[in-house]
Amino acid sequence: MKILNLYAGIGGNRKLWGNEHEITAIEINPQIAKIYQDFFPNDKMIIGDAHKYLLQHFKEFDFIWSSPPCPTHSRMRFLCHEQEGKLDRYPNMELYEEILFLKYWFKGKWVVENVISYYEPLIKPYTSGKHYFWSNFHITNLNSNSRNIKRKHTHKEHIRQKEKLFGFDLNNQLYGQKGQEIMNNCVEPRLGLHIFNCAFKIKQGKFDKDGILKT
After folding, report:
1. What SS3 class is residue 25?
2. Is the dihedral of CA 127, 131, 136, 138 positive or negative?
3. C-beta of residue 199 within 8 angstroms of C-beta of residue 111
4. The domain spanning residue 106 has which CATH number?
5. How far apart are CA 102 and CA 106, in angstroms?
6. Is residue 60 part of a domain?
7. Could you tell me if residue 44 is inside a domain?
8. 87: domain range?
9. What residues contact residue 15 under an 8 Å CB cut-off, 6+ apart?
């Protein structure tokens, strides 16, 4: 199966999909793209604009996962505005552009992921874990283990907790506030697998108490 993984990040959503599929990942940040490629050397990595790539190549794939940038939709942005009075950008509507585009033009299975927004979604999503999902298949809820991560830790401690939970070893390649933001945006691998299984009606696997898939 040919899979398109847009706004791939370090590949949290893709981690448990296995290696039997032909996966193309799109990531605009070269440093993050390199980390993804180190984790998934068999995937085809393209450094570029995921929004444009979708429009130009969507017909080439059987399954498309898209995770457009979420900060302008986040409840955290609303909270910061309430506390600091800062509001410097509009919500990025490319999120809804992609949902509508995939809904009416793509013939395969698709899913668009984003944070739970500070406003009532313009198109009704499914909710699973701490995320919204729009798709052309039914998605059931899966509780997120990342709820147990405490934000009071330093950036380094926070990243270490996420590494342990998600099963990644970044070897200090991401650090500071930027690294924490990247890990916060990373989809929990077991949730990524859950969504994938929902798309193709695959029997759900079982996870241990740490959220690791049992083999």
Report:
1. strand
2. negative
3. yes
4. 3.40.50.150
5. 5
6. yes
7. yes
8. 2-147+191-200
9. 39, 166, 167, 168, 189, 192, 193
Determine the 3-state secondary structure of 155 from DSSP.
Answer: helix
User: Per the confidence metrics, is the pTM higher than 0.70?
Assistant: yes
Task: Establish if 113 belongs to a structural domain.
Answer: yes
Question: What is the predicted pLDDT for the residue at 65?
Answer: 98
Structure tokens at 123: 């198109």
Report yes or no on 86 lying in a domain.
yes
List, for residues 17-58, the tens digit of each pLDDT value: 999 999 999 999 999 999 999 999 999 999 999 999 999 999
In the block, residue with structure tokens 């399954």: 63
Which residues, at least 6 apart from 82, have a Cβ–Cβ distance to it below 8 Å? Answer: none
Q: What is the pLDDT of residues 69-106, one digit of tens each?
A: 887 878 665 555 555 556 677 888 999 999 999 999 99
The two structure tokens encoding residue 144: 């997120």
Q: How many domains does the chain have?
A: 1
